Structures are given as structure tokens and as C-alpha cells.
């Protein structure tokens, strides 16, 4: 018998956990809090719908990622997430090329923007989700510093063209909110949603909760 168990299993058994993400940061963060998981990136269209506001956009994508994999793997609890950077009401996703990365960092320089990360958890036909909002202020950066940062290659697979967990840390003057949401996965919010979905987390592997204790 497999070592993982679906929600219908006895309390205390470990569910199969799937992280619906290609992001190495999300894998690292889930491992950091001891949640063993498989990785299965979800193939969802990340384009912004007409008139879609930033928060509904990122929440929809996180839910789509989790739901898509949950339908394919009904025995598993699935975690999906999406991160966007918003400044002046515009969504900055991942830069397409060096010029776009330079334009994004130039726009963020010396100003405050908002990072929104949505997380969704899905199992048994139920998808629960939430969005963390984090305010991040960048130090003023000159053109030379911006070009040098972009040439590290770090910005290219990251929303807003920076990584707070890497060289991009030096761009940051202030952060107000959950650091882990900026990095791509709001761990506290995620654990709360997993508990609401019927799982226990006690600083180690997830287990199926006793329904009376939920
Ligand atoms: C702002 C910021 C974003 N990021 C990353 C987190 C996400 O991986 C990425 C945002 O793009 P996403 O589309 O949220 O995620 P992804 O395409 O990397 O992975 P998947 O959709 O398969 O889950 O930007 C950082 O690593 N550090 C940061 O400081």
C-alpha cells in the first residue's frame, strides 16, 4: 500500500501532497516547513482577462493551478500559487527579455509597489484560496546598478524582475507583509487553508485531521 492517503482515510495518515508549480522557490519553501511533496507543474494560461483586476487575476491562476492537478490526481491534496507585482495599477509578470527586465526595475527603483501572492489548496472537489498583499519599497538605483543586476540573470524567471531572496535583496529598503509571499508562497496562509481543508500540520508532514478536531 502507498504511504500516502486521501482525505477519506483514517485520521493521522499522511496525504499525498502535490505542488502544482515549476517554481524552485515554492519547492524550497514547502520543504523548509517539512511538508514532503511531489512536483507537477500545472499548464495553465497565465494571460490577464480583459478588465480583470490584479487580485482576482492572481487568485484565479492559483486556483486554476491547484484545481487542474486535483482533478488529475483525486487522491492528492494539491497546492497552487501565483505571484504578481503591481505598480500604478499595472501588473508586472515575468520579463520577456533583458530590456523588459531593465524597464521593470527602473520603474520599481525608489518607489513602493505591491506584491500579491495567491495560494490555493484543493482536494475532494473543494478548492480554498487566499491572497497575501505585501508592500515593498525599493532603494533608488542608478542605470548602472540596474543593468548589473539584470545581467546576473536572476530577474528573468521572476515576477517584477527581481528576487528578494537573492541579489535582489539589496534593492529592497523596506517590506511590510509576509516575506515568504514575496518569495512566492505564503506559508502561514497556506497552512491555515490546509487546516480548513481537513489536514493537520504540526511542524512536520501533513496528516489527515480528526474531523472532530478540525
Ligand atoms: C517578487 C518575487 C517573485 N519571485 C518568483 C516567484 C514565482 O516563481 C515567480 C512568479 O511567477 P508565477 O507565475 O507565480 O510562478 P512560476 O511561473 O515561477 O511557477 P508556477 O506558475 O509553475 O507555480 O516569481 C521570486 O522568486 N522572488 C521575488 O522576490
UniProtKB/TrEMBL annotation:
Protein name: dTTP/UTP pyrophosphatase
Record keywords: Cytoplasm, Hydrolase, Nucleotide metabolism
Cofactor(s) needed: a divalent metal cation
InterPro entries associated with the record: ITPase-like_fam, Maf-like
Main location group: cytoplasm
Record: active site: 82
Keyword field contains Ribosomal protein: no
EC identifiers of the protein: 3.6.1.9
CDD domains in alphabetical order: Maf
Keyword Cytoplasm annotated: yes
A GO term from the CC aspect: cytoplasm
A GO term for molecular function: nucleoside triphosphate diphosphatase activity
Gene that this polypeptide is encoded by: maf
Subcellular location: Cytoplasm
EC class of the enzyme, as a word: hydrolase
Catalytic activity: dTTP + H2O = dTMP + diphosphate + H(+); N(7)-methyl-GTP + H2O = N(7)-methyl-GMP + diphosphate + H(+); UTP + H2O = UMP + diphosphate + H(+)
Domain of life of the native organism: Bacteria
Role description: Nucleoside triphosphate pyrophosphatase that hydrolyzes 7-methyl-GTP (m(7)GTP). May have a dual role in cell division arrest and in preventing the incorporation of modified nucleotides into cellular nucleic acids.
Example GO biological process: nucleotide metabolic process
Site (Important for substrate specificity): 25, 83, 165
Family the UniProt entry places it in: Belongs to the Maf family. YceF subfamily. Belongs to the Maf family. YhdE subfamily.
Coiled coil: none
Amino acid at each position: 500500500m502507498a504511504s500516502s492517503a486521501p482525505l477519506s482515510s483514517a485520521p493521522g495518515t499522511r496525504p499525498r501532497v502535490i505542488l502544482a508549480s515549476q517554481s524552485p522557490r515554492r519547492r524550497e519553501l514547502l520543504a523548509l516547513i517539512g511538508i514532503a511533496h511531489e512536483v507537477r507543474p500545472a499548464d495553465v494560461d497565465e494571460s490577464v482577462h480583459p478588465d480583470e483586476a490584479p487580485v482576482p487575476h492572481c487568485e484565479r491562476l492559483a486556483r486554476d493551478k491547484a484545481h487542474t492537478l486535483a482533478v488529475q490526481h483525486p487522491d492528492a491534496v494539491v497546492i497552487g500559487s501565483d505571484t504578481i507585482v503591481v505598480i500604478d495599477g499595472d501588473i508586472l509578470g515575468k520579463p520577456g527579455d533583458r530590456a523588459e527586465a531593465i524597464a521593470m526595475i527602473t520603474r520599481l527603483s525608489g518607489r513602493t509597489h505591491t506584491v500579491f501572492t495567491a495560494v490555493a489548496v484543493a482536494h475532494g472537489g473543494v478548492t480554498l484560496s487566499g491572497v497575501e498583499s505585501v508592500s515593498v519599497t525599493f532603494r533608488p538605483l542608478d542605470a548602472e546598478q540596474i543593468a548589473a543586476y539584470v545581467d546576473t540573470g536572476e530577474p528573468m524567471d521572476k515576477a517584477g524582475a527581481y528576487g528578494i531572496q537573492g541579489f535582489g535583496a539589496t534593492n529592497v529598503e523596506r517590506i511590510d507583509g509576509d516575506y515568504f509571499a514575496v518569495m512566492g508562497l505564503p506559508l502561514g496562509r497556506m497552512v491555515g487553508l490546509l487546516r480548513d481543508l481537513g489536514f493537520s500540520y504540526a511542524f512536520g508532514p501533513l496528516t489527515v485531521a480528526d474531523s472532530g478536531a478540525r
